[in-house]
Structures are given as C-alpha cells and as structure tokens.
Amino acid sequence: MTFLRRIWHAAPIATAILGVALLLGAFFAVRLVVFWLYWGDPNHRNQAIEAWMTPRYVAHSWNVPREVLVEALDLPSMPGRPRSLQDLAQERGVPVARLAEDLQAAIDAYQARRPAP
C-alpha cells in the first residue's frame, strides 16, 4: 500500500492512467478467455440455426465470414443493434425457417468454394 501512495504522490495523473490501462487490459483479457472457452467447446460449433441466433453468432458457429451471411440476408453493411433471426423475420414478414434456409444455403455454398484444410 505504501508503494501506491508513493507513486500517487509522485505522479497522480500517470498513476491514474496506469490504473485505467490495467483495468482495461484486465477487462479485455477476461473477455478473450471467455470467448475462447465458449467457442472452443465443440457443442457450439455448427449448431442448427435457430430463431434466437444473430447472423454474427451463426457466422461464428459455422466458421464463415460474417459478410457471407450479411449478403445472404441482404442486410445493410452497418446495422444498428444486433438483431436475432426472429426480429429480422418479423421485420420482413417471412417465417424464420425461410431465413434459416437462406443462411444454410449460403453456408453450404461458401464451404463448397473453400478449399479443404
């Protein structure tokens, strides 16, 4: 504790900046680990497309570029908040199954074009 007091008295602005930088670093490190653990679980890979999913979630699950799904759904390039497939289907007046079929067709086409590892 005396170390913190000493550096605070020596340079309060630099100490505050260091503290904020450490907090931000810790936040992004935790976020990275959570993301890594979630998507490292095989149960989250190639999941069946459901109404609660967002296009970004589907892209992560199926390991395809988000642009492929954005193009398949004809979404604007800079959408506002993330919207689920249910929300998108309601906005367009189509069933969620139709959007899921469009996404699956785009995923299959992308995977057919992509060279095998």
Which structural category do the helix and sheet elements fall into?
mainly alpha
H/E series, N to C? HHHHHH
Largest sheet: none
The strand count comes to 0
Count of alpha/pi helices: 6
Distance, first to last CA = 53 Å
Q: What oligomeric state is this?
A: single chain
Percent strand equals under 5%
Poorly predicted residue ranges: none
Give me the Rg, rounded.
Answer: 22 Å
Rounded average pLDDT: 90
Shape: elongated
- The helix fraction, in percent, is 55-70%
Structure characterization notes:
The chain has 117 residues and is mainly alpha-helical. The protein is 68% helix and 0% strand. It is built from six helices and no strands. The chain has helices at residues 2-10, 12-40, 55-62, 66-73, 85-92, 96-113. The model has no long low-confidence stretch (mean pLDDT 90).
Brief overview, please?
With 117 residues, the protein is an all-alpha fold. It has 6 helices and no strands.
Short descriptors:
117 residues; mainly alpha
Q: Which SSEs are present, and which pair or pack?
A:
Elements (H helix, E strand, L loop, with lengths): L1 H9 L1 H29 L14 H8 L3 H8 L11 H8 L3 H18 L4
Helix pairs in contact: 1-2, 3-4, 4-6, 5-6
